[in-house]
Design goal:
The relative contact order is 0.08. 33% of the residues lie in helices and 20% in strands. It is globular. It has 443 residues and is an alpha/beta fold. It has helices spanning 2-15, 39-50, 53-58, 69-74, 77-81, 97-107, 152-156, 164-176, 206-214, 234-242, 259-264, 271-284, 303-316, 343-366, and strands at residues 29-34, 63-68, 87-89, 111-113, 134-138, 140-141, 160-161, 181-185, 221-225, 249-251, 289-296, 320-325, 372-380, 387-392, 397-401, 410-418, 423-427. It has four domains: 2-113, Methylthiotransferase, N-terminal domain (Rossmann fold, 3-Layer(aba) Sandwich), CATH 3.40.50.12160; 129-247, Transcription Regulator spoIIAA (2-Layer Sandwich); 249-367, Transcription Regulator spoIIAA (2-Layer Sandwich), CATH 3.30.750.200; 372-442, Beta Barrel (OB fold (Dihydrolipoamide Acetyltransferase, E2P)). The strands form five sheets. Strands 13-14-15-17-16 form a five-stranded mixed barrel. The protein has a four-stranded parallel β-sheet with strand order 1-2-3-4, with helices on both faces. A three-stranded parallel β-sheet has the order 5-8-9, covered by helices on one side. The structure holds S-adenosyl-L-homocysteine and iron/sulfur cluster. The site of iron/sulfur cluster has 10 residues, from α7.
Length: 443
């Protein structure tokens, strides 16, 4: 979501006469986009801003701004924490950034623009994108779920779904420009359309939105995140099975396997409901991948609670997982409970689930050896310049040898080996970029 917000701001500034440069040293304006979901991200942010002190001494006119959730959380206090900051701009105020920057450059007086947390972002269609064939498309902002550990509803405001016609128009424009893959973004995509829009009408739910995007010529792959277990139903899985462009990958955060902890987290489901969803998903979406988020060391989490998480993870065998140590985020509700799991226990639990996940990922990836998968080629493999890397429809990284001219195309790759983190293979004999099969071909 932050990547998309940065593109939005960069595009808007480009249209207002600014230019992008390739290094901080060359910049007249440096904007930090920030995440406040965990304390660690926030600490790194302020340390990165602090790193600019030397540059600012040399270049007194350098403008340093903070945007994103940490700006909204700290407001004017961000400047107390980092006096290098000239501008603080919350996520809801980002559409005003061009004016804010011009104002600052004329008056040289610090500007704090925050609190438009519940407003709808204007439909500014700047053409700037970081990638030429894969694009993020926001389908809504904010969140009404109030998971007790989560700061998002406080800094991103109430859930607002974007009008379906605006989403469709954006995807159509992307298709016309040659984009092949779109990832639909929302804090909880499954509740798309539920929140009443200012105009009071929103008949399109998430599955209907997928059906409409599936009809757009030129788009080959549709991804989405994030799904919430309390709002996911088999209707979505059937859409994933039946709509040929919708990729067979579900990111479904579990957070914990203990019902007591899930209740304290205000997640609205039990481990049993989660397991049933997974069973239905795997039955309906044949060969689909499943990824998750897990938090360890939530307030009052005992060894017995943690073992329940391990046990659910063991029985599901996720394809991959993002794993986090619990971090209290006031004003989120759980920050008022005791953060009573010792740091060493959190670390130990984290290492246990990472170990378990690495083994599950390896097993699931190895099961693909010998199959042929459709890959959208992303670019050169960073670790080995001679190889290319891309993603399967199930969002697994695939490394293979090939010519740079293949970047952006869809290829069939025969999988020869696998690790926890990636598949390795070779271009299937006779695989043609013109075939562009929209289904994963599993031999
Ligand atoms: N709306 C998305 C993204 C939420 S933030 C969703 O609901 O999945 C991404 C992940 O960060 C969450 O799923 C959770 O696992 C983790 N997270 C959020 N708040 C946290 C906190 N206070 N401490 C540790 N991890 C947290
Ligand atoms: Fe946060 Fe929960 Fe909303 Fe996700 S669904 S953004 S974890 S409150």
């Amino acid at each position: 979501m932050n990547v998309r917000d940065s593109e939005f701001v960069a595009g808007m500034l480009l249209e207002n006469g600014f230019e992008l440069v390739d290094s901080v040293e060359k910049a007249d304006v440096v904007l930090f986009n920030s995440c406040s979901v965990r304390q660690h991200a926030e600490d790194r942010l302020f340390s990165n801003i602090g790193d600019l002190a030397r540059l600012k001494k040399k270049k007194r006119d350098l403008v340093i701004g903070l945007m994103g959730c940490t700006a909204q959380k700290y407001k004017d206090k961000a400047i107390d924490r980092s006096p290098l900051l000239d501008i603080v701009c919350g996520p809801g105020n980002e559409a005003d950034l061009a004016g804010i920057l011009k104002d600052f450059m004329e008056n040289r007086c610090a500007i704090v623009a925050v609190d438009k947390v519940n407003e709808k972002r204007p439909e500014i269609f700047s053409i700037y994108r970081e990638n030429d064939f894969k694009a993020y498309v926001s389908i809504g902002e904010g969140c009404d779920n109030y998971c007790s550990y989560c700061i998002v509803p406080y800094v991103r405001g109430k859930e607002r779904s974007r009008d379906a016609k605006d989403v469709i128009r954006e995807v159509e424009e992307l298709a016309a420009r040659g984009f092949k893959e779109v990832t639909l973004l929302g804090q909880n995509v499954n509740s798309y359309g539920k929140a009443v829009r200012p105009s009071g009408r929103q008949a399109v739910n998430f599955v209907k939105l997928l059906e409409r995007i599936n009809k757009i010529n030129g788009i080959e792959r549709i991804r989405f995140m994030t799904s919430h277990p309390k709002d996911v139903h088999t209707e979505l899985f059937k859409a994933m099975r039946d709509l040929e462009k919708v990729c067979e990958h579900l990111h479904l955060p579990l957070q914990s396997g203990s019902d007591r902890i899930l209740k304290l987290m205000n997640r609205g489901y039990t481990a049993k409901r989660y397991l049933k969803l997974v069973e239905d998903y795997r039955k309906i979406v044949c060969g689909g991948s499943l990824t998750t988020d897990i938090i360890v060391g939530f307030s009052s989490e005992t060894e017995a609670d943690f073992k329940k998480t391990l046990s659910v993870m063991r029985s599901i065998e996720f394809d991959s997982a993002f794993t986090f140590k619990y971090s209290p985020r006031p004003p989120a509700k759980s920050a008022f409970l005791k953060d009573d799991v010792p740091a060493a226990a959190k670390e130990k639990r984290l290492q246990s689930i990472i170990g378990l996940q690495v083994a599950s990922s390896k097993k699931r990836n190895e099961s693909l050896i010998g199959s042929v998968v459709e890959v959208l080629v992303d670019g050169r493999n960073k670790k080995d310049e001679k190889s290319l890397s891309g993603r399967t429809r199930t969002n697994k990284a695939v490394i293979f040898e090939g010519d740079r001219s293949l970047v952006g195309s869809l290829l069939n790759i025969e999988i020869r080996s696998a690790t926890s983190f990636a598949l390795r293979g070779r271009i299937e004999a006779g695989s043609s970029t013109f075939l562009s099969p929209t289904r994963q071909a599993v031999s």
